[in-house]
Hints:
Blueprint: E1 3-11, E2 16-23, E3 30-39, H1 42-51, E4 60-61, E5 67-74, E6 86-89, E7 96-100, E8 111-113, H2 120-123, H3 126-139, E9 147-150, H4 154-165, E10 171-174, H5 178-187, E11 191-193, H6 200-208, E12 212-217, H7 224-230, E13 232-240, H8 252-257, E14 262-265, H9 282-295, E15 304-309, H10 313-322, E16 330-334
Amino acid sequence: MAITGRQLVFQSDRTVTVEEYPVPAPEPRQILVEVARSCVSAGTEMNFFRDHPPTGPLQRATLGYMTVGRVVQVGADAGDYAPGDRVLTCGHHCSHWLVDLDDPGSSRWYIAHIADAIPDDMAGFAILGDVALHGVRRARLQIDEAVAVFGAGIVGQLTIQFARLSGAYPIVVVDLYDSRLDLARQSGATHVVNPARDDPVRAIKEITGGGAQAVFHCAPAAQVLQTALAAAADRGKIVLTGSAPGTAEIGLQVELLRHELSIIGVYETGLTAPHPYWPWTRQRNRQACLRLLATGQLRLDQHITHVVPFTDAGAIVDMMLHGSGDEWMGVVFRWD
Length: 336
């Protein structure tokens, strides 16, 4: 029997509509998932929506890449997946997602089982956890290494937790919203700084005794990079974990050269297969996130502020685009 799905479509005028579409039956090596939750990646999606609205003949786009649901149909040779399995996928904001096991490297390739201990509302954010964990791995944190995190959104909160699990100390978090700084303390921050009241560079240098050895740029503003450089210790690392659009002006001689700083990008390009020199693939990072969520070592419950029906997506997106950052944190759309 033919299935009619529904999906969120982001229009060029920055509105969101719900559209129906025919759901294909799975072919060999394909798995059809009925979505229960889709999570919003605020940095990627809002930056796209704000700065690069869809253009071209259709003037529309589908977004999203974090979905949780159950398998409803499988094609031949679909591995160890069967109808009823609860899974994590990289689907768009839609009611059904077709996984293709023969398309490695694409968003349609990824699928993983989810432990019963992880609620639907949290499980999808394991994919953002993968981004944060990759940034911490790239920083090669050591026990008692001083860390600063600029930006306390979901990626920043996850970075704080992974830095804590790595033994970093102190962990200083900078954000403009006190509500997010309160959550940062719950994530493991030892100190918090609001730039509206305190100079973050001076505060970080006082707390760390000269500067942070690893500085994570998790803020949506590119210009924060100059402040991150100034807050780093000699031979420190600045890790670009966030999805900040645009360009940044930085001081080359005084900040970057004289202090011998390193700037590290985080994007996981091509990391679909393990290598002896870098075994940490995206799927391995996501499995680590799911394991830590199941055991309670990684927590997201306090960071999820909105779980709403997908039909309310337009109002939620408008709030995220035009409202204050202390109104929301983790946003989830319900499809069940």
